[in-house]
């Protein structure tokens, strides 16, 4: 079983050698490793070529050069199109794979032939310390093809991590369901996961850590609030207009949750940004939810959406750390 490891490369010279070494040291050898140079301004690709020139094992390598920067989604899409593996594995260039990571995931893929996704457990390292953010719970089954259970848990984003990395994904699943990443976004994994939930028919779960994810200050996920908010506008719009008839309640719950999280980001923006304009944009995006709740006379849903009618001073109170949790508790039980 061939695995294509796809690594987008952009300005990661500080970390890329660690990442490449972790691939070269894999105990599983039927691997093609695809590096996508997304117009990296540093010497990351030089460091990669130096590493693989000294390698003498069975792993094959493909290098793709973008003519212009396309972002993480575009780099992953280029890797998908160039891949020839039975399964794909997305690896961020500042992370790494434990020595037996791919072997452990492949073991489950071979045990459950044609499984759509094998989800691995992850070790998350932040400020030099390990935490349990993406560690799989022992209560998860080793395998499931229960459509209701899978869709519910992928959408709810509690038991199953909302990440494209550390998943062994059947290439045919991505191609047949057109599960390419939306370009021009950050938080693309959240977008991808919402739509993957609609198509996934089977998943296996590896409780052994198969990925090391590093959180660094100043990365996409920890900076640029305005771009984050704009990306969420696009994601919310796609979620609202991309709902299907299966498990509507859970899809609405996801939309309400991510919209409120984006509200918090908007309220916490520096004063030189136009908070009212951004609130207006998000209110417009959620109008179909308003209309649907009115049509079904869902008072509690209307209540959960009513905060857009509050003045900014009250929204600031609602978004305070010790108060915002109340919204999520209400959402949990009423939607």
Notes on the structure:
The chain is of the alpha/beta class and 335 residues long. Helices cover 46% and strands 17% of the residues. It is built from 14 helices and nine strands. Helix 2 links the parallel strand 2 and strand 3.
Structure, briefly:
With 335 residues, this protein is α/β, with parallel strands linked by helices. It has two domains: 3-220, Spore Coat Polysaccharide Biosynthesis Protein SpsA, Chain A (Alpha-Beta Complex); 224-334, no CATH class. It has 14 helices and nine strands.
Which SSEs are present, and which pair or pack?
Elements: E1 3-9, H1 16-24, E2 31-37, H2 44-53, E3 60-65, H3 71-82, E4 87-90, H4 101-111, E5 117-126, E6 129-131, E7 143-144, H5 147-156, E8 167-170, H6 171-176, H7 188-199, E9 203-215, H8 225-241, H9 248-267, H10 275-285, H11 287-295, H12 299-305, H13 312-318, H14 321-334
Helix pairs in contact: 1-2, 5-7, 8-9, 9-10, 9-14, 11-12
What keywords describe this structure?
single chain, 335 residues, alpha/beta, Spore Coat Polysaccharide Biosynthesis Protein SpsA, Chain A, 2 domains, 9-stranded mixed beta sheet, 14 helices, 46% helix, globular
Total number of helices: 14
CATH topology of the largest domain: Spore Coat Polysaccharide Biosynthesis Protein SpsA, Chain A
Low-confidence stretches: 219-223
CATH architecture of the largest domain: Alpha-Beta Complex
End-to-end Cα distance, whole Å, is 43 Å
Largest sheet: 9 strands, mixed
Global geometry: globular
Portion in strands: 15-25%
Fraction of residues in helices? 40-55%
How many domains?
2
CATH 4th-level superfamily of the largest domain: Spore Coat Polysaccharide Biosynthesis Protein SpsA, Chain A
Q: How many strands? A: 9
Order of helices and strands: EHEHEHEHEEEHEHHEHHHHHHH
Give the averaged pLDDT, no decimals: 93
Structural class: alpha/beta
- The Rg value, from CA coordinates, equals 21 Å
Q: What is the top-level CATH class of the largest domain?
A: Alpha Beta
